[in-house]
Amino acid sequence: AANQLWVADITYIPLECGGTCYLHIVTDAYSHKVVGHKVSPSLRASESLEALRQAIAHAVAVRGTDSLDGLLLYYAVDALGHGVVGGVVVLGHAHRYAV
Prior knowledge:
This is DDE-type integrase/transposase/recombinase. The chain is of the alpha+beta class. It has one domain. It is about 35% helix and about 25% strand. It has a 3-stranded antiparallel sheet with strand order 1-2-3.
C-alpha cells in the first residue's frame, strides 16, 4: 500500500553554465510517485530534510494526523536532524540496491 515505505535519493543536474544543482527527492516505493522534492545548489542535509518534510505533509493530508505511522515519520525527521544516516549507494552500482 502507498505511504508504507519511502525511498530518498539525490541526483545531480549539470547546468549549461557549467555549475551543478541537486534534486533531493522522496518517492513512494509502492506507487513510485514523488511525494517530496527540493532543487538546490547544495548537498546540505537541510535540503533533503525539506523534501522529507514535504512528503510528511502530504502523508498527513492524505491519512490524517491520528495515525501512529504519522508519529513514526516525525521521529524519522528528528533522527535525521541528529546525524542518523541511511544507506549509501556506491556510484555505478545503484541497481544492486533497487527497491
